[in-house]
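#struct-help
A.M.: can someone run this one for me? Single chain, 136 residues.
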Amino acid sequence: MLPTPMKPLRLGELELGVLEFLWANGAANAKMVHADMRDTRQNGLNTIQSTLERLYRKGILERTKVAHSFLYSCRCSRTEILTQKISDLAQELSQGETQALLAAFVEFTARLDASSIMQLEALVAARKQVIQRDTL
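D.P.: on it. Structure tokens below:
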């Protein structure tokens, strides 16, 4: 779970690439991440190490010392990162106006296919059950 940020969560392209690797492969050290990414990116090992350290300082990764290096793993899921990014953008653009945010969300759902709308309805229904249970 992400720590509650004081400022919006900003992630660069390389940070997202590193997260993608860790979500797909699990815990890894800098050499493992670099070996996977060197064919698609021209980043050196030091750049990957710095990126992992930056994600660790942001509270997104955790690490354990293994021999002479750190083994990094994600503290949060893709969904948690996406939720935080959407929350940051919604706050920035709606400035707390719930009606504008909900209207934009409804307009967005108009672009979804029927299957996605059914999935959304199921997720909303499940969330409503959790809220009702927690208020009892």
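A.M.: thanks! The radius of gyration is 19 Å.
D.P.: also worth noting: Strands lie at 61-66, 69-74.
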